[in-house]
Design brief:
Elements lengths: L6 E2 H4 L4 E2 L22 E2 L1 H17 L3 E7 L4 H9 L6 H7 L14 E8 L23 H6 L5 H17 L2 E2 L6 E3 L3 H7 L5
Parallel strand pairs: 2-4
Antiparallel strand pairs: 1-3, 4-5, 5-7, 6-7
Helix pairs in contact: 2-6
């Protein structure tokens, strides 16, 4: 990763917590996809944005920290994730896992999956686990889900803490996953960087 120009986000901001879910079995496949990759790497510009989000979070919530679940994702791992959902149509699959033929923004080192945690690393309640496939995880449906009693106000407030910090850092959220944020659009990432091996 370093040879390809990426940086370890904890070298840019040591207060950011990291627990790469694809280096564990605690993910939607139930397998370690990353082998010996256990540190979170990003393009330098994306890592700087993440540090800005972290700084904003701590200025407004001193006892909270960003907890990174995924950052730069090698292309081989992207294929493993894509192929792990054979029962979904390609259209449905693309909501949750980018088509490796098009390139995930993660594979350019310009996307991050994360949550907010206590200083000790205990994640706040966001209403679903990371990598939950379904509308409970959709930021776009939060108001309706709150009215239906499927999400609590506290869970939505926790998500808003995360979204506000990430937007302050210069990231954009997406419609289907409360944990995913992009530092750049896919088109811009493709123009600026190459896919991480």
């Amino acid at each position: 990763m370093i040879k390809q120009g990426l940086v370890d986000v904890q070298k840019i901001d040591p207060s950011i917590l990291v627990e790469l879910k694809y280096s564990t079995t605690d993910n939607f496949i139930g397998k370690d996809v990353y082998d010996d990759l256990t540190r979170a790497y990003m393009q330098p510009m994306a890592a700087k944005k993440l540090a800005a989000a972290s700084k904003y979070l701590q200025a407004h919530h001193p006892n909270l920290r960003l907890l990174v679940y995924d950052a730069a994702r090698p292309q081989a791992a992207q294929w493993k994730l894509w192929n792990a959902l054979p029962n979904m149509s390609e259209n449905e699959r693309q909501k949750y896992v980018a088509d490796p033929r098009k390139g995930s923004i993660h594979s350019y080192g310009c996307a991050v999956d994360l949550t907010v945690a206590t200083k000790e690393g205990k994640p706040l309640d966001m209403g679903t686990k990371y990598d939950y496939f379904g509308e409970l995880a959709y930021p776009s449906q939060e108001d309706r889900l709150l009215k239906a009693g499927k999400l609590t106000q506290q869970q939505i407030d926790n998500r808003k803490i995360l979204r506000t910090a990430m937007r302050q850092g210069g990231f954009s959220p997406i419609e289907f996953e409360w944990w995913h944020f992009n530092a750049l659009s896919r088109a811009k990432a493709k123009m600026a960087f190459r896919i991480v091996d």
